[in-house]
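Let's see one such:

===
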Amino acid sequence: MRAALGMITVSRAEDLLRHRPLALRSEILGRECREHLVVADLHWSGRAIDLQVGDMLQLRAGAKIEGGCTEEAERRAESLLARAVRPGIGRVAAPEANWSAYLRVSRENYSGRSVYRFLEEAEDAE
């Protein structure tokens, strides 16, 4: 943001570099969070929310999750915390705010062709 985009000053960039990601996630959630955390709010627009299995997603309190790739982990007065549990494509929406976004979950550390990144895993037929 400083070097390529020029959006922040050098002193602000140095200040931000002093903070550790684990501490920032813990501050946002009010508890320790070792998983990757994505915070999506009404300003998230124009692209899908991409997660890996095991990642956490924080949404506004009234948000609804559609699809089976994430599960609600914790509902608070001010936010909803969800965990990515399996590869697939879903959707999150906050109808009262007229906001929605697609949600895509890939396998953890996926390596391969991008067209297969978010495919749901096939169930074995017995």
User: Anything to note?
Assistant: The two ends are 52 Å apart (CA to CA). The chain has two domains: 1-34, 35-116. The mean pLDDT is 90. The longest helix spans residues 21-29.
